[in-house]
Write the structure tokens for this entry.
Amino acid sequence: MDTKGRHRNDLLYDARRHISLAVAGLATEGLIGLLKKVDTSFAPLRPKAFRAANRDGYLVDLIRPEAKDVFRDRLPSALSNLSEDLEGVAIFGLAWLINSPKLEAIAIDERGYPVRLVAIDPRAFALHKACVSRREDREALRAARDLEQAKAAATIAVNYLRRPFDSPELSALPNALRAFAPQLIDTDVPQTSEPNW
């Protein structure tokens, strides 16, 4: 939830690659068209917006990493060429998430079919959120929320998924980012040898 009590989801867009969504009509209807299939009240908050909202105040943001050279940023900011579609806003530090290890799993959908899910490694997410919480320009309320999210993701990664922060998988992340790991691990949570499902 955001600071006004509205629910919010961020959709991270790696503009270097084509996004793969198993949805017919993405090129012709755009992301806003996809959202309208779920809830017809979704609409961009303004022209060329990165955020859409529905009548209940549920927010969806399209975000993307900042380019190394903002003056030479030629990567597409939208998922379609439609003028009314959402355009991704560049956010500092997301390149770490794009380049971090991925977590893959198979889930079962409502019809009983397997669905492949690929998500950002929860350790990388935790480190990113911890870093964001320490930014001087971050509002105090959001910074506190970011740190709590970081601790929750770290707890899940270490205690339930058995993915330690000292793994070589995270060696490509900056040292300054990995330095946040010790403060995220809750020593009060009992360590078990088997996942506690």
User: Anything to note?
Assistant: Residues 15-22 have pLDDT under 50 and may be disordered. Residues 140-160 form the longest helix (21 residues). The two ends are 26 Å apart (CA to CA). Residues 8-91 form one domain.
